[in-house]
Queue: 2 jobs
Job 1
Amino acid sequence: MFRASMLPAAFNNDWSFQYGNQLNDYLIRSVSRSLNNGTCNCVISDTCQESLHIGPLDLVLPDLVKGCSPIDGLQMSTLECFFSSNCIDTILTYLEYYTQMDGSSPISFVPPTVLPMIVHPLDNSISSRFLPNTSIDILISELFVEQLNTTISYENYFKSCAPSICHYEYERQNDILYVATSVLGLYGGLTIILRFITWNSTVLLQAFTNYLRMRRTMVRPTA
């Protein structure tokens, strides 16, 4: 919905604002950003990406990318940066580094001498089925589950639910004996029904014929 309506994100990573004047015939306008050295435009594709910069332009965070929207960039990034204490310290150092609306560097920024918090890096020695370069999109789709164990125990199920009545159905495919018995039963039932209908129809037809004959032979008195 946001991409169809072309609403800009709060971080201005998909659209940028350009200021003009009366000579330019506009005061402010939004221009779509091009990523990856201008080779990919967010209006055309939502898979555009480029390395994520934090602080000065020459400071690049490894395996963290910027997409057309914050959620796109997050899904295409990996967690490799968070296995390095230096990378985490770099992020904490430039947390307050905000660029201006036109993308220029902040007017006054002094790197802190003491980091605002202590964040320990991820432990790479812990075994995992996910590699460090696995994208966050895959981690989310897998629900960050390392191993899923399935245990089936009807005994524990009935102990937990404690049902008072249990009803089950057993389905099986009909064999040749069942089919033959059903056909013979159907044939016998149809035979009895047809015999009943035929006999009663004959009796009714004969009674109706006799009634017509009696009316024809009836002598009517004359006045």
Job 2
Amino acid sequence: MILTQRARRRRAVSELTGVLLSLGVTLTAGAAVWAFARSQAGVQEQQLGTAFNSNVNALNEQFVVAQVVYAASSITIYIYNSGQAPVQFSQIEVYNSTRTKIDLTFTATKVTDLNHV
């Protein structure tokens, strides 16, 4: 069957409309996937940055117990911080020579002598 000139033009317009519609849907879906992937990459980058920063801070903390002086009723501990990060101790524990029990516990708020409880 031979199509008339008008039928051929209508068929060509119909195919062109279908191609343009398919192209539009494909581009829209691609843009949505790209935007989602980009936002997820940003979230992952931020989480990794936070994790790495905490590790770097731990590596920057470098302190040495330089000297410990025992007296009859006191103990003096000299600590040297050679790292780049400021160090603030929350607790210091002093053990006996065999490390079987704690003799003294120092926290930011109090000192506890565990031998005289």
